[in-house]
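User: Could you check the structure of this?
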Amino acid sequence: VDLGFTGLEFTWQGNRHGHVVWERLDRGVANYDWKAKFLAASVRHLHCIASDHRPILLMFDLNGESIRWKRKPFRFEEKWLVDQGCSDIVKKAWEAWPRGQPMYRVVNKIKKMLHSWSKNHFGNVKD
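Assistant: Sure, the predicted structure tokens are below.
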């Protein structure tokens, strides 16, 4: 479901055949469950400075409640890059075949395998 918007009408400006073209290409979308949970959510089109796309801002009111994440978000650690094991894990994950949307599958495989490898190889990484 398109979340609608406030602010400037168009999010992209281009030039086609010598004419300026304005379009609303960028938008906020959600499924019905999310929309029912965050009734006050809104999207605002912001002014752009150095791009042909305007940034969009998703705002929502939690009525004073905070979002509780089940797990910490995945963060790729720069130190992994200097260890051959990282490259091996990414290759192994890339060759596995899980279910889901294609890009989600790839990212999720790599994330899970890197997390497990890092925990075994480096121990718990503290922020």
